[in-house]
From TrEMBL:
It comes from the Eukaryota. Gene3D superfamilies: 2-enoyl-CoA Hydratase, Chain A, domain 1. GO terms for molecular function: catalytic activity. This is Enoyl-CoA hydratase-like protein. It comes from Dissoconium aciculare CBS 342.82. GO terms for cellular component: mitochondrion.
Amino acid sequence: MAAPKFSSQPPETPNFLLTYPLPHVLLVTINRPRAANCLTYAMSWEGDALFRWYDDEPSLRVAVITGAGKAFCAGQDVAEQGMNVMLWQQKKAGEDVDLPEVGNSVFPSGGFAGISRRQGKKPIIAAVNGVAMGGGFELCLGSDMVVASPKSIFGLPEVIVGIYAATGGLSRLVRQVGMVVASEIAMAGRNLSAAEALSYGLINRVAASPESVVDEALKLAAKVAAASPDSIIVTRMGLRESWEEASVERATQNLDNLYKAKMFDSPNVMIGIQAFAAKKKPEWLPSKL
């Protein structure tokens, strides 16, 4: 499918391939297969800019992210991270060394790949085609839905190399699987198979085969893209607020305060109601939320 007409052009993404396989759907492929799609700091900033653009682009409603080759994402580039730590320690010891620039030494506000700590407006579906380790697993935990290859593996091996999962994965993992299971994964280095991840509610489904992961994720994306773009934005916000807030009622109040009036001022409300009454397919307008 040809690229749709955008209100603004996407940012430069030398490490991510962008395609548009279905109407209103963005497919992002992490394109560093020789390094098992591990990410440098600069790549996370690249992803952060990309998904900010995606949120602002009216023609797009849902994104799918996958990895080139056999791996989904093996996490952070450990060689770069190790060099940064060495320079920081040398600087602290009084040595005359140049520290790396911010874009090569810290994560953006959206976290790993611009996803693991992303608030955002629109949903992202992870199509996990292989290993999802460290930051790659945190990326999944920050996604809205996950479809995984039967051969995929999930884990947080950071403690083995003397660091910790620093881009939101620990908190999100506890929320999803509970303290004791999260502790075993994060502190004892337990890896999860796709079947185990499914049993813990970490993924939506296991694909029929490694080759069908992206297609199955795109089928899920098509269902999301067929709904009102306003409704998807507001519903996602409601789900995310409930996840972030300790109080269910406070989460509901936050959602109402932010979106209720805007939602019912949107023409898509009447478009949906009238189409339902006439038993016709609604022709949604781009969201202005």
